[in-house]
Amino acid sequence: MLLINIIGAGHLGKTIGRLLVKNKLVKVGAIFNTSIESSISAIEFIGEGKYCTSLDELPAANITFITTPDDAISSTCETLVTNRFIEKDSIVMHCSGSLTSDALTSIKKRGCYIASAHPMRSFAKPKLSVEQYSGTYCALEGDSEALSVIAPLFTSIGSITYRINRNKKSLYHAAGVFASNYLVTLSQQALACLKDADVEDAMAMQIITNIMRRTVFSLEQTLSPRQSLTGPIQRGDISTIKKHMDSFPDRTRKKLYSELGEATLPLTTHDQNKTEAIRIALKSIQHRDTYYVTRVNETTQYTANPFFTSMRLTGYRIDNKKSLYQAAGVFASNYLVTLSQQALVCLKDAGVEDIMAMHIITNIMRGTVSNLEQTLSPRQSLTGPIQRGDISTIKKHMDSFPDRTRKKLYSELGEATLPLTTHDQNKTEAIKMALKLEEEDILYMSYSFF
């Protein structure tokens, strides 16, 4: 039986370790985490192993998993080079979605083989991840000698494995951000709409996850974003789009609705006139959001005082509750389909065939919706580079997109995701800088609307 070590057994490391042990595929030699307490917790979850207090203590193993945060993988590997127990022909691998096996090149001087395996799913809840792991798509790349060992292991725990081009891995990983992390962002936008429409939080999340689950099911059946799209943009319902835009009490939500609407248009079959009319409706970010209505002694009075924009307890928007409720459905369903299209384009650009790509996308979306159903909390379900504050990965994604439209949408969704994180001001500003479009992209976007 193969012997493994795990360095950095967090959510992903614990899940993979538990699955390998549960299926009697390996024995765990040692776990090394940043604290003894977290190492012991990982050992208890996985079911076996002992903890080490330094990398020098790691015993010999057939496979060493480095499942640390991305920015620690290369430095961890470099430290591992000096470990006297590392054996020639053993395997060192990581499970990063954005980094290739090149991050482990330093260990090759010890005669080791290197690889990466990235299961495309959320690992926010390890226990749930273990239960739902079967059928997860897992991308592999690296030395053939390593892959010949790793591929059967991951297949045996329920993965559907496939090889990817290491030079296109950033696009592959960005697809996961669109399909999973930004799906959580959509759930938060839908939640904000329902809360503004006076729906209680727990009920709102049940409504949102229900419609998301049904939308993912539709995508699984059709394997086509175009065939699964419904809603006002698909119908060309200008009046409803304007009502939604007018109902939002904040410009952030207006802007995101607008950008996602623009990204949805290529999935429709409208003629040029209808398309332009929809674009105009989506760009109507005006001052109408300052108009509120209050009731005094059963008479109606109108005001354009911006004071009411911040004092929401003083008044309520004219006929906006139902529009907000409907807009929540657009975020939770129609724009989920839009995200699937963005993820599909990323995977196609990474060389993944259409049908396989849609299976990958719907699989990760289903897992993310399950997490939301369990937590009833977008904040608790969020994973990915923005949640981790992984500046390097965010920049790689932005640089990997061959079109400005995708860059802009990734950027806007990233900005909308930040309120779900707990980063300090410095980290938040650093993420915003990484998400910013280059000046030439901004100029292109500006001129494209004239």
TrEMBL record:
- Give the record's keywords alphabetically: Oxidoreductase
Q: Where is the Putative oxidoreductase/dehydrogenase Rossmann-like domain?
A: 3-119
- InterPro entries, per this entry? 6-PGluconate_DH-like_C_sf, DUF2520, NAD(P)-bd_dom_sf, OxRdtase/DH_put_Rossmann_dom, TM1727-like_C_sf
The organism's superkingdom is given as: Bacteria
Give the molecular function GO annotations. oxidoreductase activity
In terms of Pfam families, this protein maps to:
DUF2520, Rossmann-like
- Return the SUPFAM superfamilies for the record: 6-phosphogluconate dehydrogenase C-terminal domain-like (SSF48179), NAD(P)-binding Rossmann-fold domains (SSF51735)
Tell me which residues make up the DUF2520 domain: 136-264, 294-417
> Under what name is this protein listed?
Rossmann-like domain protein
